[in-house]
Amino acid sequence: MKRAISALLCAAALAAPISVAEARPHRHHRHHHLHQAVAVQEEQPILFGGIQSGLQQGFSAGTGFVERARQFVGETAHQVGVRSALWCSAFLRKITGATGVDDRALSWESHRHIAPQVGAVVTMGRRGGGHVGIVSGFTAKGDPIVISGNHGHRVAESVYPRHRIRAWVSPT
User: Fold this and answer.
1) For residue 18, what is the enclosing H or E element?
2) CA angle, corner 31, sides to 113 and 47, nearest 5?
């Protein structure tokens, strides 16, 4: 059984629908991220830790939010139509129409916790602050690729180390 799972995961890694073009370190405030050009095929499930994202969890609406968020990549808060201070949560509220969250990134942790998958909202940071975005894919190492507002004062799609993720939650 373990051999079959290993073979399946290896095959999934070789056929992964994520292609990472070029990465360069980027230092922004106190955060250390990698900016990457990525292409994610949303129609095909991404295997991650033995979980078929979007299919096994019955969670397909999240991928529509990813496409909606991706339309804003490169835009500022003003262009998106949200306030220009601490606007990562406001951006996600606009994309998802979520209720029960406020301008604090960590307020999203009140939503239903789900398995790591495309379309999940991820929170990062400490109680005094934080960051929030929506997962658009995964690297071969399993780090999430996240679309978020207020990343270098713009909406950006970037890789975040998996260990920085506090919670994986439903976008609605």
Assistant:
1) strand 18-28
2) 40
**For residue 2, what is the enclosing H or E element?**
helix 2-14
What phi, psi does 140 have (nearest 5°)? Answer: -60, -25
For residue 49, pLDDT over 80 is answered with no
Which structure tokens are listed for 69?
Answer: 């968020």
Domain residue ranges in the chain: 2-169
CATH architecture of 2-169: Alpha-Beta Complex (3.90)
β-strands 47-48, 131-138: how paired? unpaired
pTM: 0.68
Separation between Cα atoms, residue 29 and residue 53, nearest integer Å:
32
Q: How far is residue 168's CA from residue 27's CA, in Å, rounded to a whole number? A: 25
Q: Where is pLDDT greater, at 52 or 63?
A: 63
